[in-house]
Amino acid sequence: MAASLAGNGWIDNLVDTWPLVSHVFAMRIVTSVTAMQRLAGRWQSRKRRVGFVPTLGFLHEGHLSLVRRAREIVGPRGCVVVSIYVNPTQFGPKEDLSRYPRDFARDKKLCRGAGVDVIFAPDDKDIYPQNGAGAYSTYVVEEALSRGMEGASRPTHFRGVTTIVAKLFNIVRPEVAVFGAKDFQQAAVVRRMTRDLNYPLKIVVAPIHREPDGLAMSSRNKYLLGNMREQAIVLWRSIQKARTTVRKSTKPIPAGELKADLKKMIGSEPAARLDYVEFFEPDTLAPVSKVTRGTQMALAVFIGKTRLIDNARL
Ligand code: AMP
Fold it and tell me: Half-sphere exposure of residue 243, counting CA atoms within 13 Å on the CB side?
């Protein structure tokens, strides 16, 4: 992978004393945890504002909208860090870890174009050491918001997410971290973890970026070949159907009834299989039995072997 430029004295000095130049001049790629921590420490002592966008890479416009949000918050003199790391601990044993799409050269170009200051792209050995004094053995677990929906379908997923996000926060030490509403439950879990573990930073959640036909942008959309791409719009159609039903009705709709209708609609696409659809309070994620305007909806649907998620406020 790309060499680290962190710790390269003259570049660091130039970038620190003339921050605006960094956007056109040098986007740094840091691959070592120690180098990233050193850089973050320097930023802290120089009171530079740091905005952070954690990703799995294979970037798209959705990710870049988070980068732009981070830049708006920290300003032109602040530092925007994007981490690109396919975190193995958030993938289940039967999930797509080994074939998760990767294209670091393309990600670099997109980040440079979006004015990112630093890509932090560590490797597994540095994040989860297996040698030395012993194998990696510390995990962060959120025990309430992570139970349902994604947590029920992917039992070890949020443990992996909270662990890597906690580690990344310790390494990058941002004042603000931007997450996407695309992963609604993830954002809620991370926000709770941040509060519970007293991380001195703000979590900002940016809106879902969609394709013109409504499909939420996702790195996994790359898997949708042939007519799968068209069938994938069924997630957006489900949201619209639920929204229309709720808005047309003068009284709350029983959640079970709406779920059954949506299951039927999703089942009419030959390659689609509903994993779950849930209606819940947006703040507590508590499921509701009656759906009204303002209820949050989330769903996960397999299109062939590709599992897609989406959500919206009704
Ligand atoms: P990922 O690389 O899929 O783990 O996503 C990294 C971050 O980008 C997460 O906070 C996601 O919620 C966010 N994200 C992914 N897709 C979108 C999208 N279509 N719109 C907005 N944010 C997104």
Answer: 12
